[in-house]
Amino acid sequence: MKRSGTAKFLENALPSLSVVAVLVAWELVVRWRGIAPIFLPAPSSIALYLWRMIADGTMEYNLGVTLIRIFVGFALAAVTGIALGLLMGMSRIVYRIADVWIAALYPLPKISLIPLLLIWLGSGEAYRIVISAVTAFFPIVMSTYSGIRQADRGLIKAAQDLGASTRQIQFKVVIPAAMPSILSGLQLGMGVTIILIVAAEMIGGSSQSGMGYLLISAGQVLETEKVFAALLVLAVMGAVIMKLQQWIDRKIAPWIAHDNR
Amino acid sequence: MDVIVDGVTQIWGEDPTQVVALDRFSHHFRSGRFSCLLGPSGCGKSTLIQIVGGLEPATHGTVRVHAPGRADDVRRLGDDSVMVWQNLNLFPWRNVIDNVAFGLEMRGVNRAERYARATALLGSVGLRGFERHLPGQLSGGMRQRVALARALIMERSILLMDEPFAALDAQTKIVMQEELLKIFDRTHKTVLFVTHAIEEAILLGDEVVVMTARPGRIKEVIPIELPRPRSLDMINSHEFGALFDRTFHLIREEVSAAMAQQDAMVSSPA
């Protein structure tokens, strides 16, 4: 079906136009009704605060600290989760043992571990990284395991027929076949890492840094403009991380887009 | 290589729900001949070639492989055969050349040599220039050629083919059949070719082993004495027509039997 030029233009422009429209409406409502900035600041004053926070370095510093925590927590979860997932997929004994623990710990809301972790680790870096890594570990380990178990039997048989040894089958067939599942586990893991790091920064912050700390401290003194500015930066950060991860996935496993068996 | 199948029975599953896929199948597949296994769906023909390829253990019976005239020198099952699968089973993450060279890579052949051999083979099946494509980027016919090249590079004397052309469109299928005939005339491998298409079986085979509906037994072995090299023009010959009629009547009874089995399975309470 051939669409007219105007229809195409509208389809491309409407999403951005909708954002502009909401911002303009927001600005106008705040100004006309004289809403107090502590309840709902106007977009223009949020932008002004955001600019000031960037200019004096507060935003960059807190964003940087949060990003480092996210990547450390995620890396820890990815390495341990993939390693255990692979072992579980390849060894029945490891699976049997790990399964008991996963069954018991997975349904537990990980934030309920916060009091315990605060007692054990204090409220410093270790606590934030451990809480996020523990949370991200579960989706990663489970997707890795199921990717290994669900590796196409036909491909395994074909490799066997072409003379591959058991070890070669595991490394050259089973693990690559599990890649799509491992990568989607990592995406889930990244999502929860972000959530948990920011939450941990809000709850037990002794080091007084990070986007979560920025949010909670601005909120406590009713600097609502700063709260909105921090939320905006967090939203952009999350979107950029997710897009980046999808881009890396396509580089690692370009066949997934073409795999139409 | 001669392939001697002796009393092979294959039973899937446990007692109450078990299925007898093959029942005392015995046949001597002679070295250098093209044998087609023809039968209704579920008659165990795919199972049989997997057993011959050493990829499934038979419940009962034996398969022996040896060079012609050397019956005392029995080879290990699977060492002399390679399979072309119905759904191809290409590795989707490997590009064409790495799919074709897979067997050599597993054997420890260095990259330069395996790429040289794979490139030559890809040229001979008309895939020059597609070495770096992923299987998912190719058409069905091209994927089929990759699968064929991946098997041929192994240089095994027995070629096991499980309905390799079933998923292709009519024109591509004709081209691939002619290609396979040429390869057979050139290499004289021992071929076990599973199909449910009568014309294909007669066109390609030196013999057509007609199988019964489940449990799969041999119903009749029809020798095909059409001259080689074969070509598609032969389909219009009188001889071909006579062979087709004979095979068709045999297979029709079995297909009806297979359909009755399926109906019974659907209507009987589980």
Q: What brief labels describe this structure?
A:
heterodimer, A: 261 residues, mainly alpha, flat, B: alpha/beta, Rossmann fold, three-stranded antiparallel β-sheet
Can you give a write-up of this model?
Chain A is mainly alpha-helical and 261 residues long. Chain A has a single domain (42-252), classed as Orthogonal Bundle (MetI-like fold), CATH 1.10.3720. Chain A contains 10 helices and no strands. Chain A has helices spanning 5-33, 43-55, 58-90, 92-105, 114-121, 125-149, 153-161, 166-203, 211-220, 224-252. The longest helix of chain A is centred in the last third of the chain and has 38 residues, at 166-203. Chain A is flat and about 75 Å long. The model of chain A has no long low-confidence stretch (mean pLDDT 91). Chain B is an alpha/beta fold. Chain B folds into 2 domains: 2-80 and 156-267, Rossmann fold, CATH 3.40.50; 89-155. In chain B, 37% of the residues lie in helices and 22% in strands. Chain B is built from 8 helices and 9 strands. In chain B, the strands form 2 sheets. A 6-stranded mixed β-sheet of chain B has the order 5-6-7-3-8-9, with helices on both faces. In chain B, strand 6 (158-162), helix 6 and strand 7 form a beta-alpha-beta unit. Chain B is globular, with a radius of gyration of 19 Å. The model of chain B has no long low-confidence stretch (mean pLDDT 90). Chain A binds chain B through residues 152, 154-155, 157-165, 168, 172-173, 176-177, 179, 253-255, 257-261, and chain B through 50, 53, 55, 78, 82-83, 85, 87, 89, 91-93, 102-103, 105-107, 134-137, 150, 154.
